Amino acid sequence: MDHSTCPVCGSPLKVLFKLRFNVYKCDNCGLLNSDAQFEHSFESALEAGARDPGLKALRLQNFITIIAKLKAAKKGDLNGLEIGSGNGWWLETCQSQKVGCIGIEPEHVYEDYHQEKKLDVIYGFYPDVSPKKEGGYDFIIFNDVFEHIPDINSLVESLKQDLGDDGILIINIPMSTGFFYRIATLLHKFGMNGPLTRMWQFNFHSPHMNYFNESNMKVLLEKHGFNCAEVFKLKSLDIQSTKDRMLADKNMSKWKASLMTSALKVMKPAIDSSEPDIKAFFFKKRPGK
Ligand SMILES: [Zn+2]
C-alpha cells in the first residue's frame, strides 16, 4: 500500500511518528495513516478470554443506542450486514431487538460462541464471501472495524454496490480527536509510548490502519457518493470496564491498573465534556449514485 498520498483527499502524507510502525499525517484533512500489517502469525498481547466481561456491558449499551437510531431512521423490517463480527455481540443485540443481520468474520476464534447463540455468521473476508441481497441491504455496519481496513476506497465502492438505495451505512469508530487519543499523544511526547501503541493496537495482530476525525470521515464517504445523515457520540468510558480491559492486557500490572482507574474517576467529568472518543456515523447514498 502506498503511503505517499492521503487515501481520503490525495494530499501528501508526512511521517508524524514512529512506533512499531510508521504513522503518517495528512496536513490537509488530518487523516492519520499507518503502514501496519495484518499479521496472521502474530500472537496478540491481549488474552482473548479475559477481554470479554469488562467490555460487554458498555458495548451492548452502545449497540442499543445505534439500533434505536436505526429504527427511527428506517421503518419496517430491517435486514443488514455486519462486517467484522468478532465475538458476535452486535448480532446478539440484533437478535434481541428483532433486527435481521448477517455477520462476516475472517477469524474462527468465536465460532463456537456464534453457534451456541445461533448467530448467522459467514467466515471469510468482505466482499469475497458476502452474500448478495436482492435490492441491497437495509443497513451495513462496522463496529470498531473500519479503522482496521487497509484499502478504504475500494471498500467503500463495494459497500455502495451492496447497500440498498435507501440503505444506511453505519460506521462506529474511535476518533483521533477524542480525549484518550489526545492524552496518549501527549504521553508519547513525554517519551511514554505504551498508550499510543495501545490506541493503534500495534501489539495486536489486527492493528489500526487509519485514525479518522469527523470531518475527514465525511470527506471520504462524500467522495464516493454518500451523504452524512447523522453523527452521534457513543460511550467510551465505564470505569469498571476500563479497569477490566486494562487487566486483560498481559503487560499491565494490577497496581498500575488500580492507579489508572483512580485517576480516571477524578478526570471523568472532564472526559465526559470533551470531544467524544467514539462516534457513530449514518451515511446514505446520494440519489443516482
Ligand atoms: Zn487528506
Commentary on this structure:
The protein is α/β, with parallel strands linked by helices. The chain has a single domain (45-285), classed as Rossmann fold (3-Layer(aba) Sandwich). 36% of the residues lie in helices and 23% in strands. It contains nine helices and eleven strands. The protein has helices spanning 52-73, 89-96, 111-116, 152-162, 179-189, 194-200, 214-223, 239-248, 254-273; strands at residues 13-18, 22-26, 32-34, 79-83, 100-105, 121-123, 137-143, 163-174, 210-211, 226-234, 278-285. The strands form two sheets. The protein has a seven-stranded mixed sheet with strand order 6-5-4-7-8-11-10, with helices on both faces. Helix 1 (52-73) crosses helix 2 (89-96), helix 1 (52-73) crosses helix 8 (239-248) and helix 5 packs across helix 6. It is globular. Mean pLDDT is 89; it is low at 42-50. Zinc ion (ZN) binds next to loops. Zinc ion is lined by residues 6, 8-9, 11, 26, 28-29, 31. InterPro entries: SAM-dependent_MTases_sf (IPR029063). One of its GO terms (biological process) is methylation. This is Class I SAM-dependent methyltransferase.
Percent of residues in beta strands? Answer: 15-25%
Quickly give the structural class: alpha/beta
- The CA-CA distance between the termini, in Å, is 27 Å
Count of DSSP-assigned helices: 9
What is the string of SSEs from the N terminus onward? EEEHEHEHEEHEHHEHEHHE
Which value, in Å, is the CA radius of gyration? 19 Å
The major sheet is characterized as: 7 strands, mixed
Quick one: CATH superfamily?
Vaccinia Virus protein VP39
How many runs of DSSP E, i.e. beta strands? 11
Question: Which ranges are low-confidence, i.e. pLDDT below 50, for 5 or more consecutive residues?
Answer: 42-50
Mean pLDDT: 89
CATH fold field value: Rossmann fold
State the helical fraction: 25-40%
CATH architecture grouping: 3-Layer(aba) Sandwich
CATH class: Alpha Beta
Give a list of the ligands. Answer: zinc ion
Please give the order of strands in the largest beta sheet: 6-5-4-7-8-11-10
Shape: globular
InterPro entries: SAM-dependent_MTases_sf
Keywords: Methyltransferase, Transferase
GO molecular function: methyltransferase activity
Pfam families: Methyltransf_23 (PF13489)
